[in-house]
Amino acid sequence: MNIALVIIFVFLLSSLFFGIRAQKGKDMNMEQWTVGGRGFGTIFIFLLVAGEIYTTFTFLGGSGWAYSKGAPSYYVLAYISLAYALSYWLLPPIWRYAKRHKLVSQSDFFVSKYKSPVLGILVSAVGVLAIIPYLVLQFKGLGIIVSEASYGSISPAAAVWIGVIAVTAYVMISGIHGSAWTAVIKDIMIFFVVLFLGLYLPFHYYGGIQPMFEAVHAANPDFLTFPKEGMSISWFISTVLLTVMGFYMWPHTFGSVFSAKSASVFKKNTVILPLYTLMLLFVFFVGFTAILQVPGLKGADGDLSLLRLSIQTFDPWIVGLIGAAGLLTALVPGSMLLMTAATLLSKNVIQVLIPSATDKQLPRIAKGLVPVLSLISLYYTLNGGDTLVTLLLMGYSLVTQLFPALLFSVPARPLVNKYGAFAGIASGVLTVAYVTIAQVSVGTLFPSLPAVIKDLNVGIIALFINVVMMFAVHLITQQLFAGKEESMPSEEAHQPVS
Amino acid sequence: MKAKDWLGFVPFIGMLGGVPFVNRVEPYVLGMPFVLFWIVLWVIITSGIMAVVNRLDPANREEERG
User: Which of UniProt's keywords are assigned here (chain A) (predicted)?
Assistant: First the structure.
């Protein structure tokens, strides 16, 4: 066992300790478990909302994208800061409504606004469907980090098992309180690690940031700007807009909004959070530095660039600290994802389908679902293969389809009825599923169009169909059911899952 | 929508709308290729705009007074 591994395990055990201690003296009912009794102030909300951004995907994937794709990686910086700006207008009304109606999940919001439990089942299905690949991604990243930092002495599979057991334990015991405390340690660690790596590595190998970029530019003149075709400027703009819309539609991000103490917490955070995204800049610097220093990482192996370069440069104890920070970037979001999926399934699916389940049984059902979800994700982590990126992109496109129905429900009276909301989400989700499975892009649909349009993110089409269906069905049902209430056929709710 | 709410569109227009005109490597600013610098600059401006929006928000002042 080397020093790097020792450091990683010390961090794992201490985060486990803090996570479990966090629930002391609190009656862990559903409101405490999932939304921390709505008592989190500016700093915790900052860490929870910001914390979910700095996941393994940013840590490994951010440098990996800079390494293998170049300029298109800048999109991450743009969409996160714009999403934070949007939160000033979007989150306070959601929070106020949630507090008044004692909501604990994203689906609750749709159920309450549109007065339709069936819509809640659909929204939960979309949410869980999107969460599983995201969890798999975190577990996979965790495996890469621990196994790389052990210099190969621990296999990725063993590393994944250890991490999954830890995260499952503390989610079951502490719920969101555990995530909040681990997020504190994580964000301090990641801040210093990323800052250090992003400055040290380019200076060490090139004598500065600009010489590093100049060397990359000399080796590949097209790498530091957006290409004319493919991931071009129109790809950049459409993808940023779509991901900004999808940002708060992730059920776990939406859910963490409920844990705030007041609406002004979000408003204050909108000033600091965009600056916080600048940390990503240093992640990019690492990726760009790695291009000429650890050449030859192809495809998904680009995600290894940060760790490979660190191992090549530093003593094992520094690699240990980097590995520990990376481990925490998997644990915190992983725990939020697990908890959210369990809440959605227990409260918005099981309790609707089996109304005899009481509020007392609910937390127990939710906690019982945590290990089940862990094991499902674990299975896909170990057996998933290359489909991971496809799944993640699909996850983001899926949750984005909830945005129109959410946006139109923010006014005191929703602008569309529940049938419209249901039809919009369902058609959007089915389009995404079709497009992903059939590997369609705007370019393959309309090959004769100019590149500016062909490169648009295909999610735009799904969103367009979504909005059109939403209004069409709203207008038709408005006339049909004028005045009388009818329940929706429930079998439709299961369609998007298949 | 009040005047301060319209400010919310400025970061979107600046960051996304500007990119087609600045998609080049030179000149380097603060060591960064120009298009990357442009995005970074707008991240900072976004933060500044949100500070102004927060200041102009009467709801925030009431809450501080208690």
Answer: Membrane, Transmembrane, Transmembrane helix, Transport
Query: What pLDDT, in 10s, does the model give residues A367-404?
Result: 888 888 888 888 888 876 555 556 666 788 889 999 99
Q: How far apart are CA A300 and CA A350, in angstroms?
A: 38
Cα–Cα distance measured from residue A118 to residue A418, given in angstroms and rounded to the nearest whole number? 9
Interface test mutation site (partner A, options B10, B50, B52, B53, max chain A beta carbons within 10 A): B50
Cα separation, A121 vs A175, whole angstroms:
22
A44: enclosing H helix or E strand: helix A42-51
Q: Which of residues 229-248 of A touch B (CB under 8 A)?
A: 233, 236-237, 240-241
Report pTM: 0.85
Verify whether the Cβ–Cβ distance B63 to A71 is below 8 Å.
Answer: no
Closest CB to A85 among B33, B44, B46: B46
Q: What is the dihedral of CA A229, A235, A237, A243, to 10 degrees?
A: -160
Q: Could you tell me which residues are beta bridge partners of residue B29?
A: B32
Cα–Cα nearest to B31, from A214, A277, A218: A214
Distance of residue A10 Cα from the nearest chain B Cα, in angstroms: 36
What's the pLDDT at A489? 45
3-state SS of A192-251?
HHHHHHHHHHHHHHHCCHHHHHHHHHHHCCCCCCCCCCCCCHHHHHHHHHHHHHHHCCCH
Long-range CB pairs of B31-35 (<8 Å, 24+ gap) are B31/A208, B31/A209, B31/A210, B31/A213, B32/A209, B32/A210, B32/A213, B33/A71, B33/A213, B33/A217, B33/A224, B33/A225, B35/A71, B35/A74, B35/A224, B35/A225, B35/A226
For residue A405, pLDDT over 80 is answered with yes
Chain A residues in contact with B50 by the CB 8 A cut-off are 84-85, 88, 270-271, 274
Tell me the C-alpha distance between A460 and A127, whole Å.
Answer: 19
Spell A403-433 as b/e; 16+ CB within 10 A means b.
bbbbebbeeeebebbbbbbbbbbbbbbbbbb
Which token pair is A406? 């959410």
Q: Please provide residue A452's backbone torsions phi and psi, each rounded to the nearest 5 degrees.
A: -55, -40
User: What pLDDT shows up at residue A43?
Assistant: 67
Q: Which positions in chain A touch B57 (Cβ < 8 Å)? A: 267
What was the pLDDT predicted at A312?
87
C-alpha distances out from residue A255 to A34, A338, A385, A490, Å: 8, 12, 30, 25
Per the CB < 8 Å rule, is A213 touching B33? Answer: yes
Tokens representing residue A23 in the block: 């629930």
Inspect the interface and report whether the beta carbons of A278 and B57 lie closer than 8 Å. Answer: no
Quote the pLDDT of residue A427.
Answer: 92
Distance CA A403, CA A244 (A): 10
- Identify the bridge partners of residue A260 per DSSP, sorted by sequence position: A40
Domains of chain A: 3-379 (1.20.1730.10)
Distance in angstroms (rounded) separating the CA atoms of residues A468 and A472: 6
Whether residues A78 and B16 touch (CB distance < 8 A) is answered with yes
Best mutation site among B5, B13, B23 for testing chain A: the one with the most A CBs within 10 Å?
B23
What's the pLDDT at A344? 86
Size of interface A-B (CB pairs under 8 A): 110
